[in-house]
Fold this protein.
Amino acid sequence: MAKQGNLSINSENIFPIIKKWLYSDHDIFIRELVSNGCDAITKLKKLSVMGEFDQPEGTKYQVNVTVNPEEKTIRFIDNGIGMTEGEVDEYINQIAFSGAEAFLNQYKDKASDEQIIGHFGLGFYSAFMVADRVTIDTLSYKEGAAPVHWECDGGTEFSMEEGDREERGTEITLYLNEDSYEFCNEYRAREVLEKYCSFMPVEIYFADETKEEDDDKEDIPDVVDSTLADDKEDELDFEGDDDKASDEDEDAEEDAEDDSEEDAEETQGPKPINEIHPLWTRHPNDCKEEEYKDFYRNVFHDYREPLFWIHLNMDYPFNLKGILYFPKINTKYDTIEGTIKLYNNQVFIADNIKEVIPEYLLLLKGCIDCPDLPLNVSRSALQNDGFVKKISNYITKKVAEKLSGMCKTDRENYEKYWDDICPFIKFGCIRDEKFNDRMKDYIIFKNMDDKYITLPDYLEAAKDKHENQVFYITDPIAQSQYMNMFRDQEMDAIYLTDQIDSTFITHLEQRNPDVRFMRIDSDLTDNFKEELDEEEEKKLTEKLAEIFKKATGQEQLILKVEKLKNEDTPAMITVQEQSRRMAEMMEMYGMDSSMTGMGAQGETLVLNLNNSLVKYVMDHEEGENTSLICQQIYDLARIANHPLKPEEMTAFVARSNQILGILAK
Ligand code: ADP
Ligand code: MG
């Protein structure tokens, strides 16, 4: 007594739309069908707990996925709740299609929004993205229920009749369309399973049907006990991966994704492709350090150890669990880019959903499982969702608590990790006012003694010498001369060498309006020089400017005279802070900084009146070698600040040789 039917008036249009728009990633049908199998099992377990289902002893729940590259099929088999004819009619023929209608209505406005990540109750129908024909064979757990066979060829019609399934549960077969044959390839299917199903809460087994010796593949034993395991291995190799099957011990080391304490006890027989109790679902007190590290290695394939991690575990007012790792970053070679995997009840949703995870946290690596997330909406809707904001705030708070807590109680490690974590913290402070408020007192800076100090520490120590001025080093090699001068005067500077630091300095200045940050070569404070008579200064500046401009041919040269305490240095370059920052900014935007009309990035040549060479130049304005000396003083001062341009360097070397020639005469 086959029942024929029409799916829905709208269904004529629905399949092309499902194919085109429902999910941008076609592979997602695997997630949907496997998770339906898991749901069916979870429901049955609940019924059993409630006493409404009498679970046979030793029942082992599992979802089996098989591919058949000869038939071009992929099957999803579960031993869950199953469906009666009425339920197939209600859940597959009607409900799913009301979901389809809802989707159609939404789709009208969102035609351009490819990022629809929800399923509108369309999970099952995602099968038609890849299949021409889909069949369901199901037997309900209910006593006396008849098996049902359902079939649909992706058009508007389905057929439903009594089937021949003997075991409780559901088997769904997809006859793949030509464009989707890839999904009956064992390796491709396994790849997709690992992407979406690695942490689903029911054991999932995978096999290629054509590699079995025994054809009896529909047989999913309800009861598996260990005495059967050996036989079973011959029957159906759900492991299906030769590498893994080869050696148990090697296996344990190499593919720890399959590791779990449960597996260790059960060394015989096939292994599930997933871990049903991912670390984040366990209580932090029950997790060992090694387990966190293993989990990190397996999930992120990063063989460097993470620095530390945060285990999020919240039940109220919303449910959120997860682990966030601070990865070891080698800023020189890596682009700092993390991965945060988002799960909904252990079902993988997507990586790096920036609507849920604050942008700066995307530098971390981790898993977040939030069953309460409204994922049946588009991403743009997520952005404005108050609940999503709460989640984001909670994560921010936890991360800040972990960091500030470490600074307070484990300062040694905090300092040890600082260089690795500071780009992340600074980025967070710049981007997120709340994070900044929580972290601002725990920002530390490395000083010239290689000690870590806070901004107030620095300002207090520098109070008498240069109040509210913070000197910083961006390049310890280029700025070594200035650092030596600072050391001579017992002054200190801090290292700000990260790419993000120029932005972070601006951030700090905005929040500390009295404080000015100056690069160590930007000015010579009074500490370095003796007092100079104003009249004398003016007179000598004019005179030396004329000599040096003539000698160097630099008409724009900005020149200043000082009596430096250190007599050995004839001249130095200072680079005015604001114009340098301006030039750097323009460079960042690809503009030509020479357009500003300032000297080369606000450079000033400071001549030391206490130095004998400078005195010589003043006394021998017209001397035979005066021009050579001036040019050399100028170049040496510049070299001590930054590298010369190639043609300048060539001239410098030639002139140096010329000077040696004079000495040898
Ligand atoms: P959702 O899972 O969001 O409810 P789906 O389209 O994925 O939407 O599934 C529709 C319904 O069909 C499910 O709610 C369930 O009642 C039923 N169903 C689908 N697959 C199975 C299965 N493997 N076993 C039992 N029932 C199923
Ligand atoms: Mg579903």
